[in-house]
Amino acid sequence: MNHLLFFGNLGAGEIIIIALIVLLLFGGKKIPELMKGLGKGVRSFKEGVNNIEKDIENTPTDDKK
Q1: Of 39, 34, 36, which Cα lies nearest the Cα of 22?
Q2: 31: burial class by Cβ within 10 Å (0-12, 13-18, 19+)?
Q3: Considering only CA atoms, which of 4, 23, 20 is closest in space to residue 12?
Q4: Inter-residue contact 41 to 48 (CB < 8 Å)
Q5: Half-sphere exposure at residue 55, Cβ-oriented, CA atoms within 13 angstroms
Q6: Which residue intervals of 1-65 are DSSP H helices?
Q7: Is there a contact between 19 and 10 (Cβ–Cβ < 8 Å)?
Q8: Which one-letter DSSP state was computed for residue 30?
Q9: Are 22 and 31 in contact (CB under 8 A)?
Q10: Maximum Cα–Cα distance for the chain, whole Å?
Q11: Is the pLDDT of residue 2 over 70?
Q12: How confident is the model at residue 1 (pLDDT cuts 50, 70, 90)?
């Protein structure tokens, strides 16, 4: 599981290199569309998590035992 934590060790140079690779792969016109789709996905995920939390909080419990 610790191998997934390497993202915290990225410096500015590594981030710039990754951004350049993404720019080369997708082109400048596709990046805003990709970010828009990513934002919608994250928003949908957060709404789903919030809905589940509300359902859990509103579930009646049986404390009469």
Answers
A1: 34
A2: middle
A3: 20
A4: no
A5: 6
A6: 12-26, 31-58
A7: no
A8: T
A9: yes
A10: 64
A11: no
A12: very low
* pLDDT at residue 6 is higher than 80: no
Amino acid at 24: L
Q: 3-class DSSP state for residue 29? A: coil
Six-digit token string for 3: 């191998």
What local confidence, expressed as pLDDT, does residue 64 receive? 54
The C-alpha atoms of residue 3 and residue 8 are separated, in whole angstroms, by 11
Model confidence over 27-60: pLDDT tens digits?
Answer: 888 888 888 998 999 999 999 999 998 888 888 7
